[in-house]
Amino acid sequence: MIPRYSRPEMVAIFAPENKLRIWLEVELAAAEAMAGLGQLPADEVASLRAKVEQAGERLIDTARVDEIEAVTRHDVIAFLTHVEEICGAEARHLHLGMTSSDLLDTTLAIQLAQAADLLLADLDALLEVLRRRAFEHKDTLTIGRSHGIHAEPVTFGLKLAAAYAEFDRNRTRLRTARAEIATCAISGAVGSFANIDPRVEEAVAARFGLVPEPVSTQVIPRDRHAAFVAALAVIASSIERLATEIRHLQRTEVGEAEEFFHAGQKGSSAMPHKRNPVLSENLTGLARLIRAAVVPALENVALWHERDISHSSVERVAFPDMLVLADFALARLTSMMDRLVVYPERMQRNLDMTHGLLFSQRVLIALTSSGLPRQQAYVLVQRNAMRAWEEGLSLLDLLQADEEVTARLPAADLPALFDMSYHTKHVDTIFARVFGEASAD
Amino acid sequence: MIPRYSRPEMVAIFAPENKLRIWLEVELAAAEAMAGLGQLPADEVASLRAKVEQAGERLIDTARVDEIEAVTRHDVIAFLTHVEEICGAEARHLHLGMTSSDLLDTTLAIQLAQAADLLLADLDALLEVLRRRAFEHKDTLTIGRSHGIHAEPVTFGLKLAAAYAEFDRNRTRLRTARAEIATCAISGAVGSFANIDPRVEEAVAARFGLVPEPVSTQVIPRDRHAAFVAALAVIASSIERLATEIRHLQRTEVGEAEEFFHAGQKGSSAMPHKRNPVLSENLTGLARLIRAAVVPALENVALWHERDISHSSVERVAFPDMLVLADFALARLTSMMDRLVVYPERMQRNLDMTHGLLFSQRVLIALTSSGLPRQQAYVLVQRNAMRAWEEGLSLLDLLQADEEVTARLPAADLPALFDMSYHTKHVDTIFARVFGEASAD
Amino acid sequence: MIPRYSRPEMVAIFAPENKLRIWLEVELAAAEAMAGLGQLPADEVASLRAKVEQAGERLIDTARVDEIEAVTRHDVIAFLTHVEEICGAEARHLHLGMTSSDLLDTTLAIQLAQAADLLLADLDALLEVLRRRAFEHKDTLTIGRSHGIHAEPVTFGLKLAAAYAEFDRNRTRLRTARAEIATCAISGAVGSFANIDPRVEEAVAARFGLVPEPVSTQVIPRDRHAAFVAALAVIASSIERLATEIRHLQRTEVGEAEEFFHAGQKGSSAMPHKRNPVLSENLTGLARLIRAAVVPALENVALWHERDISHSSVERVAFPDMLVLADFALARLTSMMDRLVVYPERMQRNLDMTHGLLFSQRVLIALTSSGLPRQQAYVLVQRNAMRAWEEGLSLLDLLQADEEVTARLPAADLPALFDMSYHTKHVDTIFARVFGEASAD
Amino acid sequence: MIPRYSRPEMVAIFAPENKLRIWLEVELAAAEAMAGLGQLPADEVASLRAKVEQAGERLIDTARVDEIEAVTRHDVIAFLTHVEEICGAEARHLHLGMTSSDLLDTTLAIQLAQAADLLLADLDALLEVLRRRAFEHKDTLTIGRSHGIHAEPVTFGLKLAAAYAEFDRNRTRLRTARAEIATCAISGAVGSFANIDPRVEEAVAARFGLVPEPVSTQVIPRDRHAAFVAALAVIASSIERLATEIRHLQRTEVGEAEEFFHAGQKGSSAMPHKRNPVLSENLTGLARLIRAAVVPALENVALWHERDISHSSVERVAFPDMLVLADFALARLTSMMDRLVVYPERMQRNLDMTHGLLFSQRVLIALTSSGLPRQQAYVLVQRNAMRAWEEGLSLLDLLQADEEVTARLPAADLPALFDMSYHTKHVDTIFARVFGEASAD
């Protein structure tokens, strides 16, 4: 992924150095397991471990491994040769009975689990920001919209609570997805354990917090990876949803919220209102990119027979890319929501722009409750509503001046129907559902 | 979906009649909840329930509802009018404070849950067949292949156990997906509960085995549906994988298994070997169709503000289609695997076609263990292996005639290395992992 | 496709009756070509043609063909049997040397060409509407927006001209796509012409306005169909783009245009402003559905060896569906644009809402041209612009009262800079580019 | 894209240096056009051009531009500042009346056109190889397969001719796609030409072989780019198809062709037959990756109003990636096909493995032509065919020994029916169609 959309921690997970480090640990763990089962001389394996620890970062020499690979044309053999160069003959106890796939697939599992942990932390940070801002605006009135058209009032906190609940679901999905891919395969050619004891696989799995793959066929089955990628694709769509909301709110005509601008930051011209929601637009595009991995990941599942290598190029490219992008996008979204500038006055102005029409349904109910047949009530409301809309007059004023209305509902009682709190009376209930009872205080 | 790929039970779930039935039950459940809360006259609601039960299927009159809708241009109003026509004035207690979305989204949740239950039953049937056939062929030797090239022996039962494990994971994914979409929203316009008590939603949810949606915004959020569709897309890819395996096995040159042919069924010509794997090819295409829903489902997530209706057409078309296809495909796969004709003799013939080369790695290990340096051992093995392959001779015979080999390994000991059971010694272990210890008997 | 999103003409193209009609014509054309080449008795083929014409619609009896297929389990054989039942023994001259694929693939080509012609007519109708409305609003001023933020003025006609140009490109793409799939294959098993003369293929192709497929392998290669579907996917995205524009314009806060409402049509409540852009939202969803076919169509290309049948289910389902949807969506878009209600006053009001700020760039240029360094000019403009925006005052008034400004630009000259026509002076140029010189009158 | 799948020439097109070079040329071309129109002092612009040429590569200093951008936070302004630093005050004539989008979109068009030209050269090289190998194997007999099952004979040259025809179509598609994106937009904010003369756009377009975008809206419309990406996606699927063919042919049981192996190259074990089709498997994965760009490219079309920036991140990442991958994949495919090892003897062996059954259809026709009713002829053929298949006997021998057969067809006449040339008699015809009459010599 290009640096512009990358953060170092996620990049490091997929860096060659991290791969070599995991390779070394997996190979050592396998050898130690064999030693524990009496299948290798325990002292030599212990000595190898000591040498490895002594060598430290000298073993993580990607340049030297690449150099050897240029000769052997095989990355795993190059790595083992490199270890032998530094640690000596005891390195021959590594990789016994294993195939390259055992090493590669288990390492990928560990990398994906590391990446998932990072994304879970990203989600935690986002959730924390959404929670804080939701409570900050729990009572900030704003118009609810369906189809882009004003409907009835909600609060801005409710919008954020909905986003919180969505990303909280995404957190659960990501945890499930992490469990999907956190398996270990050390089962040898075509997964038959012909040359390796299944207990070695169990021991290595335990060492890395993985579950042994019940039946691998040289490779860990790719339905696991497809499910993992699919979970990220859903997260990407949620990112797009919240970004789209901000893009709408920042429109010139809406103006209810705005991405943070640095004091000295200029818009694209001399126009001070020209502050563009470039972060949320960027997040929209990043969501498209992240989602794009879902189709090749699904196409990767149907490997031929016990395994083919068609999945490999997709995973080399699309997996790191989508994870780096997801990490970047979640962090950008978090920062954007953290510093989002909210304009409650503009929200109020927008609520007022329909001159009270958003209460018309409640007036209708009140007239009906007074005994007026619904059709007649509808006519009374609509004729005033139409005038209010077309002439820009207050619906309340018009109703109070309409004798047919006041014959049913005293003019003095009408203002009570134009009451925002009627629409927000269950905000606490919803907050308690989303954030838990305790947190609603 | 076209009848060719449809089964009646799944079609029925998405039939207009089922929708009307669920609508009626949801509306009644809401009214009864309100009555229970003292918000509606309990006797009138009870009387309405009685009338509904008396009317029975007369209420499920899609033609009449369509007729009314042609006038009202609103499906929910048409339905309520129809109920009023039959059940009388008490029908006015239905739909109070609710929006159409409350009804539509909760109904969709119930339909999707019903569909998921049907697919879970489909998966159970498939798993049962895969288990039975796996045990039947637990010890049927066959060549394991990587890259389409012969590698080392496995058993046909192991292939089926891998498929079982994959569909067992799919079962778990589908149960998770079912939980994703089994939520209830009865929260009124923009989800604010302004005109309806949240306890009504809770009661309706309980009635249908759903969970109340913590924060709906007139609609149930569509990340839930995207996650549901994504789970089906993974299942489709697993269907494609098993279908692809069968297509490979049925190739003329492989011939290890074959889709069942009716006694009188003809191939496409006079050639008796011309039996085409048309079911598995068809399943491959169906998998592509099912998967195709995942992109629009992800695009559906980012609704504008509290809701827009752009998701609706996708859901009307793609959801029933993909579920009907998944049901059909799982049933077809189950039947195909149930009756799959397996040819163990051909499997043995294919094992033999490399003249024992598949044991060359084990000979290499034996020579190395005898103290010969690996490079020298490799040369000894390879020169015999090359001759075996190129001249079609038995590798065992060649090795027994090679004095440099027999100097290390007595000719009489060599046959023991050409031992299939070496490769199958852990089949029971793997079966116990997949099917549980008990079932391995 | 469900009737809700279907129009009869496109549905008819993919109806079984149309398929049988094409089958009959292709088979007859092949027999007549063979007769012309002296490979069949000309008189008998002529007699067969006469009998077919006499039988007329009796031959298009899908029920009878289905009945026979239930026995023969082969659709083409069932059809040929049916023709023989009605036309007698001369029907034996049909299908000689042909495979089912010859008939099916050539028929699909004809159906897709018919469908493309229908869509081309749909596009023509849309283009006509867009042209008319573009000229109607050639000079209707409206704000141009980048990032959803007011930028500089354009005209509403320019927006429509851009849409016209885009759909005109789509017309070209569709014509290219039509040419892609309009090929004929009558080449027998594995496409070798072993049992059929290549000249027969040429004759049939000519009869139906098709091109002979240069090298078919029993099937017409599926890269053609993938390219066809991809063209439709691009069209779908263009539909989404225009629909998205309308959804934005109809927002309560924007209100510049609105989908047509029937006189008696009600919004969802008593609020007269609650008119939802449901057509354009629906088109957004339909675009997602149409696009969804592109992935399976691409996956269909890599058939195994000379052919497999995995593509068939995708084509049976997704091809008619996407074409029916595209036809419906284009017609709906055309009708929507035809009757779109445009509000020029609201456009003017929105232009005014930034108090003249949209001319600030031009003031800046004028100050710079007067010799003031750009940075100083910027400071002058910005301090007035900020006040205009924050206090809601007219930028022109403020500038005229700013002595540092008027020292450079006489107050009397300033109004000339606040001139919309500066921004619209090239509208005619652009219209001439899009619609041609002549049409610009 | 990772270096593993990158070739330098395509990488260079999307390198920052190439971008700066194009920026400089576009800006200069615009200034020169303005000078030509008398809108800028011609001598100063000429002097600027001279300074630019004198500065040469010093102007392409990405590090310095990045340094300035870190301050200005705007890439285009940073670049212009850098030019001014080196070339002095006359650089102020650059970018007049232009927006960043004018520069960025026109530059992207030029880069995409360069990339398309490179891919066209790649396709030419591939076509040349396919043509050569097709003629080399024009008469190499091999079995044609439908559904993976032996059907009737073709030649290996025919398979390659089909691939040639498919990539020739892809060449046409790519040329069309190149024309789609080769447009120039120099139209200023929201595309209104308020501050720039349309003739400047025309002049710049002409300079770079582009067409002026008829109506841009600050950006070049993204349906063009979607169509471009879709064409590449189809090419990717064709790559997958040919790669899949090779993977099949290299299977152990088929063995008809094989990717080239270096003399010293080892398979994964001591087994000499273990040569894996890793190139074609890799190409299969690369095809999935390339295709994955089609969905985000389609989602990029529906920009909001005149423009938003959501498309940008997709284009920064996915466009270079897919083009680098396509270049790499085409080159790999070309090299693989160039050096493909073909085994005509194995093809013959596979032809023989059905004991003459592939001629059974022709025997059937001969019996029918002799006057025997088709059903009786079928019984005669099938009973011999079944025995041949099940007992591994020669169908010809069996037929010659069957008196009911020889009563109709003299035993001496039967061998003539088992004639491969019957199936290959139109190979020249097909080659002439694909490669032209002349080349068939």
Task: Write the SSE topology.
The structure is a homotetramer of 441-residue chains.
Chain A: H1 8-13, H2 16-36, H3 42-55, H4 62-72, H5 75-87, H6 100-136, E1 141-146, E2 149-155, H7 156-181, E3 183-184, H8 198-207, E4 211-212, H9 223-250, E5 257-258, H10 278-291, H11 294-299, H12 310-338, E6 341-342, H13 344-352, H14 360-369, H15 374-391, H16 395-400, H17 403-406, H18 421-424, H19 427-435
Parallel strand pairs in A: 3-4
Antiparallel strand pairs in A: 1-2, 5-6
Helix pairs in contact in A: 2-3, 2-6, 2-8, 4-5, 6-7, 6-12, 7-9, 7-19, 9-10, 9-12, 10-12, 14-15
Question: What can you tell me about this protein's structure?
Answer:
The structure is a homotetramer of 441-residue chains. The first copy, chain A, is mainly alpha-helical and 441 residues long. Chain A has 3 domains: 91 residues, Fumarase C, Chain B, domain 1 (Orthogonal Bundle), CATH 1.10.275; 239 residues, Fumarase C, Chain A, domain 2, CATH 1.20.200.10; 61 residues, Ribonucleotide Reductase Protein R1, domain 1 (Orthogonal Bundle), CATH 1.10.40.30. The first copy, chain A, is 62% helix and 5% strand. Chain A contains 19 helices and 6 strands. Chain A has a two-stranded antiparallel sheet. In chain A, strands 3-4 form a two-stranded parallel sheet. In chain A, helix 2 packs across helix 8, helix 6 runs antiparallel to helix 7 and helix 9 runs antiparallel to helix 10. The longest helix of chain A is centred in the first third of the chain and has 37 residues. The first copy, chain A, starts with 7 loop residues before the first helix and ends in a 6-residue tail after the last helix. At the A-C interface, strand 1, strand 2, helix 9, helix 14 and helix 15 of A face strand 1, strand 2, helix 9, helix 14 and helix 15 of C.
